[in-house]
């Protein structure tokens, strides 16, 4: 794979555009809400008893939803917490593509700053 973060940003945004998700402009608030909804789906999977590493695959065959432990081909939908977390990142990438945010540079800068912060900074409980 070996793509840079910014290459993945461009790819995610290009895919969203090609699938029609940008035919009408979305507000920044809507984009944040969509990111949040993917996190909520991950939380629901956890509340339903799924472990953070559990994955499964679904596909409708002859109108019936079929579940499998392994993905037979790319037409099977990945499900589970890892898939929902991937959706969060894809939504972030799409938004960064839309606004031309250099996410790779922002991550590098933020990680460098975070390394300078004191142990358990902020003292917040939750």
UniProtKB/TrEMBL annotation:
Record-linked SUPFAM superfamilies: all-alpha NTP pyrophosphatases
Protein name, as recorded: Nucleotide pyrophosphohydrolase
Protein species of origin: Paenibacillus sedimenti
Classification of source organism: Bacteria, Bacillati, Bacillota, Bacilli, Bacillales
């Amino acid at each position: 794979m070996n793509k840079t973060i910014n290459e993945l940003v461009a790819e995610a945004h290009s895919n969203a555009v090609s699938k029609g998700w940008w035919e009408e402009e979305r507000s920044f608030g809507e984009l944040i809400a969509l990111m949040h909804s993917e996190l909520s789906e991950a939380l629901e999977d956890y509340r339903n008893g799924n472990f953070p590493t559990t994955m499964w695959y679904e596909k409708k065959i002859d109108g019936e939803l079929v579940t499998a432990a392994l993905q037979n081909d790319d037409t099977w939908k990945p499900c589970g917490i890892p898939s929902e977390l991937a959706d969060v990142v894809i939504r972030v990438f799409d938004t960064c593509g839309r606004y031309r945010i250099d996410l790779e540079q922002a991550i590098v800068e933020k990680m460098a700053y975070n390394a300078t912060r004191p142990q358990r900074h902020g003292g917040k409980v939750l």
